[in-house]
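Possible regression after last week's pipeline update?

I re-ran a chain I had predicted before the update to compare outputs. Posting the input and the new output here so someone can diff against the archived version. Not blocking, just want to make sure nothing changed silently.
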Amino acid sequence: MDLQNKNIVNLFNPAEVNNKSLLLFMYSFVPAAFVAKTIESALVYLLLAFVYIVLVFLTSLLINKTVREDLKFVVIPLIFIGLAVLVSQLAGAFFINFTREYILYIYLLAVSAIPYMLVNDNKDKTFGNGLTNTLQTFIGFAVVLIVIAFVRELLGTGMITFGSYTSISFSINVFSKYAITVLQNPFGTLIILGFIMALVNRKVVASWWHI
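New output (post-update):
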């Protein structure tokens, strides 16, 4: 699949919404969306994802200048896997509890669609434009992931709780007796992500008004 100009995670300058770009949007958040069980876990993951995406941007500059086009399909995945392992080691040093529960999802940063879309989109850009595109993509990724986490935690538990993965500790009970607990299950993640994808797909949303 051609990945160039398919990035709709960049909310500031999104690509055209079509079947391919929407599919890549989904692959940008699976499996990351499963980490967004709470706001706290999502924020820790986003910090690690930020480090990973910046490293991807910097290494992709080197790849585009030094690696032949016919070898990139081998070199790029290997480097991205290596970067994911490096970030997982960093996570293990600073976020021990988070790593125990979610280390697999840190490794799986290497199979997200985002780094591969960034490599393709940034190869013809200047350093400044490429960095801007990378940061804008991360912001879009962060917004969607926090929305997923907020809905899953607030509606799924009726509470907002910190203290499992960081030194910040507090708990707010909103309506725990009436929580929709299914949203805390992995299936709940897919439900929320499906709603977000429907909203992103303006063609679907627009068609609702004509039903």
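Follow-up from reviewer: compared with the archived run. The longest strand covers residues 159-162. Marking as no regression found.
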